[in-house]
Amino acid sequence: MSVLVITGTGTEVGKTAVTAGIAALARAEGRRVAVLKPAQTGLLPGEPGDVAEVARLAGDVTTRELARYPDPLAPATAARRAGMATVHPKDVAAEVTALDETHDLVLVEGAGGLLVRFDEDGSTLADVAWAVNAPVLIVAQAGLGTLNTTALTAEALQRRGLESIGVVVGSWPSHPDLASLTNLADLPEAAGAPLLGALPQGVTKLGPVDFLAVAKRSFSPWFGGEFDPDTFAAQFAVQ
């Protein structure tokens, strides 16, 4: 795998932290990593966005951002309100192809959930994944309600003939409630794919060295980490 698309089950689920964690582990293995954000919303020119956060945490990675819109809305809506051009899947695919030629791993981080619209034609991150023929990683919340949104995302991927490699909890709470604990067993069923990690809440406050150490513990060996879902779940007693 040289290209991976990272989607969330919604907004603020930890996609950027997960992207940074995968990038950091790949860099630790000596791989050349590029991170592409097709559309960044809710920020003005010059303000640090998601790719800047990934670079801060993961270190020496190539970053690209194709479009930026000031309103914190879906990219298509934000573009319309700002009177700016939208991003189309062919634009993203062209950038991914160019990055893939000079990097070992290209990570494409979506905006919001899988079916958030990028343009006036209704194109989504799913269309991007199809255009670049890349597998998709689902980033989910830990607690109540996540099984439904994860299952809906997985079903949308399946109906479009896209491969879901697994699910990662983007922000594991320091004091997990019953829903979060039981979801460790139920998330793989909802996703139709394995649980490949769980990043601790607040991990983006760390510096690069500590962040890498946490990423190592929090991601599956599939990404170069040490996370085992059974061992992780065994830390918590569910009555």
TrEMBL record:
In which pathway does this enzyme or protein participate?
Cofactor biosynthesis; biotin biosynthesis; biotin from 7,8-diaminononanoate: step 1/2
Q: Where does Mg(2+) bind?
A: T16, D50, E109
The cofactors named for this UniProt entry are: Mg(2+)
Which residues does UniProt mark as catalytic? K37
The reactions it catalyses are: (7R,8S)-7,8-diammoniononanoate + CO2 + ATP = (4R,5S)-dethiobiotin + ADP + phosphate + 3 H(+)
> Which GO terms of the molecular function aspect are on file?
ATP binding; dethiobiotin synthase activity; magnesium ion binding
Pfam families registered for this protein in UniProt? AAA_26
One GO BP on record is: biotin biosynthetic process
Keywords from the named record: ATP-binding, Biotin biosynthesis, Cytoplasm, Ligase, Magnesium, Metal-binding, Nucleotide-binding
Q: Which family does this protein fall into? A: Belongs to the dethiobiotin synthetase family.
What's the stated role of this polypeptide? Catalyzes a mechanistically unusual reaction, the ATP-dependent insertion of CO2 between the N7 and N8 nitrogen atoms of 7,8-diaminopelargonic acid (DAPA, also called 7,8-diammoniononanoate) to form a ureido ring.
Name assigned to this protein = ATP-dependent dethiobiotin synthetase BioD
Question: Its encoding gene is what?
Answer: bioD
